[in-house]
Design goal:
The protein is α+β, with helices and mostly antiparallel strands. Helices cover 24% and strands 28% of the residues. The protein has five helices and eleven strands; from the N terminus they run H-E-E-H-E-E-H-E-E-H-E-E-E-E-H-E. The strands form four sheets. A five-stranded antiparallel beta sheet has the order 5-10-7-6-11, with helices on one face. A two-stranded antiparallel ribbon has the order 1-2. The protein has a two-stranded antiparallel ribbon with strand order 3-4. 16% of the residues are buried.
Length: 241
């Protein structure tokens, strides 16, 4: 083999080695300094349920992984945007929360509605988040002088009607709006013993919040409105099935 051929092959080998080295360095540098994180692919308004098709991946500096951000699409999909999310922005964890934390129930089809009630008509104020309750309407027509004695004795002028069964309670509040927690059951999303909680002895249960389909929410609000006309809402604990 001539000297010229040897020099030519040496140059080719040197070029191949240099190219391979550059590729390896580029790959290693990319692996060490760059990472992929999930970001919105399009604008997501506040209050929207985040779906997988709303997300994409974006390369960022690897040190950003130490921030309190969502990294994988599976972690972000299914949560609710608390603030408007713009395309390509990093999504910090307080910007998107689980559905139950955002609206007290993890079923997006249910409507969340509250109504006031006297503790004496709500199992003595012992209702807790997570309980299933039955909602009753008690209506009474005051007897008049023409009321038949048989009808008066039978009590037909007073009725108790079961309106809704097995309704899920998602929150309990005192008259002032403070959360009520009773051991061992705690208010969802709050740490037992927090400043926003009061015990059953220091504040009476006044407000029940439930999660129901929309037509049932209308029925509850109708009952609340009817209380001005003499009807009363009573609550019982539903039987355990």
């Amino acid at each position: 083999m001539s000297r010229r051929t040897q020099i030519f092959l040496a140059l080719i080998s040197l070029l191949v080695a240099a190219g391979s080295g550059l590729l390896v360095y580029s790959w290693f540098d990319r692996m060490v300094t760059v990472a992929e994180v999930v970001v919105p692919a399009r604008a997501i308004p506040a209050g929207a349920l985040i779906r997988s098709d709303m997300l994409t991946l974006k390369e960022v500096a690897r040190p950003l992984l130490r921030e309190n951000i969502y990294i994988r699409p599976d972690d972000l999909a299914g949560r609710v945007a608390v603030v408007p999310l713009q395309p390509g922005m990093l999504v910090y964890r307080p910007f998107a929360v689980p559905l139950q934390e955002y609206r007290l129930v993890d079923d997006p089809s249910l409507e969340v509605v509250s109504f006031p009630i006297n503790p004496a008509r709500a199992v003595g104020g012992q209702i807790q988040p997570g309980h299933r309750i039955n909602i009753w309407e008690l209506a009474a027509t005051r007897p008049i002088s023409q009321t038949d004695l048989l009808e008066l004795a039978s009590g037909r002028w007073a009725t108790a009607t079961l309106v809704l069964e097995s309704v899920l309670v998602v929150d309990v509040r005192a008259a002032t709006g403070q959360a009520v927690a009773r051991s061992p059951q705690a208010v969802p999303g709050q740490v037992e013993g927090g400043q926003s909680q009061i015990s059953s002895s220091s504040g009476a249960l006044q407000i029940l919040t439930v999660a129901v389909p929309r037509d049932q929410a209308g029925m509850i609000l109708h009952l609340a409105a009817m209380e001005n006309g003499g009807a009363q809402i009573w609550v019982s604990l539903a039987p355990v099935e």
